[in-house]
Automatic annotation (TrEMBL):
GO terms for molecular function: ATP binding; ATP hydrolysis activity. Keywords: Hydrolase. This is MoxR-like ATPase. The keyword Hydrolase applies. Its EC number is 3.6.3.-. The keyword Hydrolase applies. It comes from Parvularcula dongshanensis. Residues 252-312 form the ChlI/MoxR AAA lid domain.
């Protein structure tokens, strides 16, 4: 029997409605973080990973766990600590002996073998352990004992990070930072949002979250994001923004390093994911401006002299977006 193809607009409307329901469900679970929720969903809809940065107690872990539930993804959590080893994440081989006396190695999967990995306080582990995720995040596979093992699909990492000024933290390597599609800064909630949070979380039993989407729906939405058209004006805005922060660019002065091509790819996908999440069939330049900070702030570093002058990465990005 021939498969009936879904009308493109019906497909768009269906997936846009599902993503909207997912966002609304998370907004009833994590209060006062609408922008953060949107950027987390954009990261996943674009097929990437997200890095949530903020002080402890701002519901970063709660948001990641809620996202896994709402999207219907299998989720595992790793609490990063200074003594965590790469094998604690990827898995290891153990030697077993059968009743007949035959010995053989058996691979025991680590928590990375899931659809959504919560890397909690990722910058509390050593750089060696942090780097264990590089292959998984880029290639959706891991190599253990010389053998490549494919991860479940879809596979995403949502990592939480404490500000690097806090004790017991290690800066993430630039190579790993670049693997994150967006860096999502988590701020304190507003007074009204915190009031609603108190009423909802310190009273009776909370209403549990339930799945709004499934893994197949997420993969369909990710494919749709790549199918959405993107205009030349938006492409020019993305390229102009990224290239401005490279050597020779208009904003290169005071930067020790700038974004590579992966930043352009991240913005191209993220602006389309934002359009889908807001029910639009194509992105606009306003999407580029809205996502410039999350897409670039972890891909830009200032020189010591620039920091001494009081310049900030956010300020530099603000100068660049003002020229769009």
């Amino acid at each position: 029997m021939a498969t009936v193809r879904e009308d493109p607009m019906d497909r768009f409307d269906r997936l846009a409605a599902l993503t909207t329901r997912a966002r609304e469900a998370l907004e009833t679970y994590v209060f006062g973080q609408e922008r953060v929720i949107e950027e987390v969903l954009i990261s996943l809809l674009a097929g990437g990973h997200g890095l949530l940065v903020g002080t402890p107690g701002l519901a970063k872990t709660r948001l990641v766990a809620g996202t896994a539930t709402v999207l219907g993804l299998s989720e595992r959590r790793v609490q990063f600590t200074p003594d965590l080893m790469p094998s604690d994440i990827l898995g290891t081989e153990i030697l077993e002996e059968t009743e007949g006396g035959h010995r053989a190695f058996r691979f025991v999967e680590g928590p990375v073998f899931c659809q959504l990995l919560m890397a909690d306080e990722i910058n509390r582990a050593s750089p060696r352990t942090q780097s264990a995720l590089l292959e998984a995040m880029q290639e959706r596979q891991v190599t253990v004992a010389g053998e490549r093992r494919v991860l479940p699909q879809p596979f995403h990492v949502l990592a939480t990070q404490n500000p690097i000024e806090q004790e017991g933290t290690y800066p993430l390597p630039e190579a790993q930072l670049d693997r994150f599609l967006l860096q999502i800064d988590v701020d304190y909630p507003s007074l009204e949002a915190e009031r609603r949070m108190l009423a909802a979380t310190t009273g009776g039993a909370e209403t549990p979250l339930s799945a709004v989407m499934g893994a197949k729906d997420l993969e369909d939405a990710q494919a749709l994001v790549r199918d959405l058209p993107i205009g030349e004006r938006v492409v020019d805005a993305i390229l102009g923004l990224v290239r401005d922060a490279r050597p020779g660019g208009a904003s290169a002065e005071g930067l020790s390093w700038g974004p590579g091509p992966r930043a352009s790819q991240a913005l191209s996908l993220a602006v389309r994911a934002r359009a889908l999440l807001q029910g639009r069939t194509a992105p606009e330049v306003s999407d580029v401006i809205a996502l410039a900070g999350p897409a670039l702030r972890h891909r830009i570093a200032l020189t010591f002299a620039a920091r001494a002058e009081g310049r900030t990465v956010s300020g530099v990005i603000g100068e660049m977006t003002a020229r769009l």
